Each structure stands twice: as C-alpha cells, then as structure tokens.
Amino acid sequence: MDTEPGTERDWSADFNDTFGEPESAVQARVWAEVLGDEYPAELAPYSYTTRSELAAIASELQVGTGDLLVDIGSGRGGPGLWVTARTGTDYLAVDISDTGLAEVGRRAEALDLGDRVRTASGSFESLPLGDGEAAAVMSIDALLFTPDKAAAARELARVLRPGGRLVVTTWDYHSQPAGRPPQVADHQPALTAAGFTVLTYDETPDWEHQMRELDRLMLEAVDELAAESDSDPAEVRAGLAEMDATIDTMLRRVLIVAERR
C-alpha cells in the first residue's frame, strides 16, 4: 500500500485491520518453513523473531518479579507475554492498534497472567508512563514505524529508570524505503544523545536471506493468502512486492541492548 506524495500513511488503521483479522495459517506455514524449529509458532509473532532471540531478550532485560516491563509496538503480545512469563515481571503492552491490544488482554487471560498485565494506547514519541516508571523496555521490529528516531530515543530514556535496560530489534537503512517513515543508517547516535549507553549492537545472522525467502514463498502462496483473507490477489502481490523493495533499502537488522545512564 503506497501513499501519495505529501500524505502520511495511517499506520494505526493499517494495524487495526491486520490484528482484527484471524491469524494467517498460510503465513505461519511459510514462517515455519524458513525458520524451522526456531519459529515460535505458538506465539504468533508479527515479526522476524526466533526462539533464541526471545531467550536472549529475556536475559538482557535483567528484570524480575515486581519490575515493570514495557513492550512498545506489542501487536498481539505473543512474544512480550512470553518474556514476562519467563521473567516474572509485570507487563505493559503499548501499541497504536486497539485490536492488537484487545488480543493482548485475551492472551494474558488465557495464560493466567491477567493480574500482571495491562495495556495502553501510545507511540514511541508519546508513551503513557511517568518519568522513570519502567524497569525495562522491549520492542521487537516496531521502531521503524516512528518518524522521529531521536524523539523516540528521548521518550524511551524518560520512562526508563536509571540503570534500566532497553532491548530492541529493528533495521538500519542505507536509503529511504518507499511508503515508510524516515529511517536512519545507525540508531546509536540518537540513543547516546538521549542518555543511553549502548552495550550491544549486533546484526541478526542470515537476516536478509531469511527475509527474501519469506517473500519468495509468500509470493508462491499469493492465491492462498488472498483466499484466506478474502482479498484481491493483485493487492496481496503488490504488498509483497513493496516489502521486497523495502529489503533493498536495508543495511542490517540489529539487536540493540542499551542502559539508561
């Protein structure tokens, strides 16, 4: 879905539509084919995360019982709820999608985590928290959707307590992708300027090959995907082509661990 020059895409509406639909069995099959046993199918992640990466995130957050973990761009909440169950934290899911947040609540009840979980509408530049309220913040493959990375870094620093950890996965870009908010080639300067010490900035192994394979297999299954969502196959194909073009603008996918000074 492209935007006309001078207009801004309504990401909230897009993700409300996405998370308002049933989870895609076709997409899950493709993800499992590409990632194998590393694909956390039971979490239905709307991201490129793996079992090993989620375990690393849980460890790097350095939080436990009674701490508040904030998950920004939580989507349906599968990965974030897994992390909070593993670490024993309280959990706040923040997203721009009301349908995604409603699903977080349902999943939390099903996992018997309801008393430790709450949800709130918000964005990277405007978080529904007080100064220093969060013990840790995580975000999986969502930071790319904020148009102002420096403002986002400042807001993340504001809500984190001193010594609190930020653990994020996202992409660096060598050129601006079409139909996406402004991107950067390196997130470290904005984080450092906002008051973080960057501890880890690691490229995800084999990320480009996996993303290309996902797109290739999705294109092969375009008729199935269209039938599953009652969509026009041409529209589904155009969306996949846009994603493939976006990959061409990426430098790397990274796992960032930073500590609030």
Fold topology:
Elements: H1 11-20, H2 25-35, H3 51-61, E1 68-72, H4 78-87, E2 90-95, H5 98-110, E3 117-121, E4 134-140, H6 149-159, E5 160-173, H7 188-194, E6 196-203, H8 207-220, H9 222-229, H10 233-247, E7 250-260
Parallel strand pairs: 1-2, 1-4, 2-3, 4-5
Antiparallel strand pairs: 5-7, 6-7
Protein architecture, described:
There is one protein chain. By secondary structure, the protein is α/β, with parallel strands linked by helices. It is built from 10 helices and 7 strands. It has a 7-stranded mixed beta sheet with strand order 3-2-1-4-5-7-6. α6 links the parallel β4 and β5. The chain is globular and about 50 Å long.
C-alpha end-to-end distance: 40 Å
Q: Please identify which CATH superfamily we are dealing with.
A: Vaccinia Virus protein VP39
Assign a percent range to the helix content.
40-55%
Main sheet attributes: strand count, strand direction, barrel closure: 7 strands, mixed
| Uncertain residue segments | 1-7
Descriptors:
21% strand; disordered N terminus; alpha/beta; single chain; 42% helix; 10 helices
Structure, briefly:
The chain has 261 residues and is α/β, with parallel strands linked by helices. It has 10 helices and 7 strands.
